[in-house]
Here is the input.
Amino acid sequence: MFSGSFLYDNDAEGAYPPSYYTESAEPLKPFAALEGSGSCDVCIVGAGYTGLSSALHLAQRGYDVVLLDAHRVGWGASGRNGGQVASGQRKDQESLEDSLGPEAARSLWSLAQDANALVKSLIADHEIDCQYKHGSLHADHKHRYVDSSKAYAEKLQRDYDYDQIRFVPKNEIGELVGSDTYFGGTLDMGAGHLHPLRYALGLARAAADAGARIHERSQVVSYKNSGNGKTVKIKTNAGEIDAGFLILACNGYLDDLDSRIASRVMPINNYIIATEPLGGDRARSLIRDDVCVSDSRFVVNYYRMSDDHRLLFGGGESYSHSFPSDIKNFVRRPMLQVYPQLRDVRIDYGWGGTLAITGSRMPYVARLSDKVLTACGYSGNGVAMATLAGQVLGDAVDGTLGRFDVLEKVPTMRFPGGRRLRWPLLVLAMTYYALRDRL
Ligand SMILES: Cc1cc2nc3c(=O)[nH]c(=O)nc-3n(C[C@H](O)[C@H](O)[C@H](O)COP(=O)(O)OP(=O)(O)OC[C@H]3O[C@@H](n4cnc5c(N)ncnc54)[C@H](O)[C@@H]3O)c2cc1C
Here is the structure.
């Protein structure tokens, strides 16, 4: 029975989900739960990429950091996602130019480039063995989208001096992806893909090594400003912390912890399956150059090969709170639309995760009060952007506001309908777009 908590209702408490990622990563030794009372400079709630990156960067600067997670480090979307490290924001540069003006659009592009560079430098600096590979293919499933893909690649080359992307015509896309469902697309060698849980665990190890105090199985149940306004008092299920600053990095798992954030971000579940190992030759017949692929559907299909040649295929969003009872079959359907030749293949793993979207599909980065900051709502584009946002929140705590201001200025609307109605309204809107996609 779903009680309305994304933090608990779809998963076992304190345990990583039964995913391919869990099976192919070495968990860290558990961090003890917070007990009793204490204090710190900065308390961070949520140990996904946002919280881990904040903790790492703040601890490196000498801040006394306490990082709390209700389950385990990397337990949330950060340990379950498609691993695709995209270039740019979730919104394309044309839409950003139209809605925010060319200057803001340019700043957001360069922040996204910083985000990709940050991921690569963290992997190198902390020797994180997360199998990063270059290349991301965007594939158009409708002929009518191909001209705009071509124009967009040319725009990035021309207006943003970005030479890593190129147009891929119909005859070539059929060679890159062993499927006849695509009409063209773009190939971006500045983007890439990685093992998301290994990346999260590497960040956690680096944060702990830098001195961050990590506590798992420590759910924050409430927080309030202290009487003198100088600290924030944070309560967990078994302890409390007085902190100079609080960073809320809960993303799709926020539940009711903060109503201001909850009104601007919407949790959505998404699912991935992993096939049995296919062997090198069959893997190359599906994705020739080991790049990751995402397609132009509203409910995006995104896929790539694992190191041991399994197809990791994500898709089949559902607009209910709870995961489907048979995730493997739920995602197998869109997989077979793309690759009917995989009908004979066994599906070894199927899992779900909760992400957070905003109305604008741009991250929600905000100072909620003098001492409380948040970043979330990456709308499916969080591997790099959440890593960057964590660093940017750290900068803001430290008094450097340049990049924080750029992100905070991006308008994010409240979802209409209030707490009770916003979910059914979203379901209606999403179902409409998903239907339109099939026309
Ligand atoms: C199935 C799936 C596929 C995706 N694919 C991609 C992709 O290919 N590329 C991409 O860029 N993005 C992708 N995303 C999105 C990306 O994973 C997220 O944007 C990113 O991981 C967000 O990181 P985060 O740290 O903000 O949140 P999370 O990783 O979700 O971490 C939030 C943490 O907060 C903790 N928490 C919440 N409330 C509390 C509380 N009260 N007390 C203590 N702890 C709490 C949770 O336990 C959780 O560990 C995908 C997401 C999903 C679910």
Observations:
- The domain at 20-81+197-266+360-431 is CATH 3.50.50.60 (FAD/NAD(P)-binding domain).
- Residues 102-125 form the longest helix (24 residues).
- DSSP finds 13 helices and 17 strands in the chain.
- The chain has a mean pLDDT of 94.
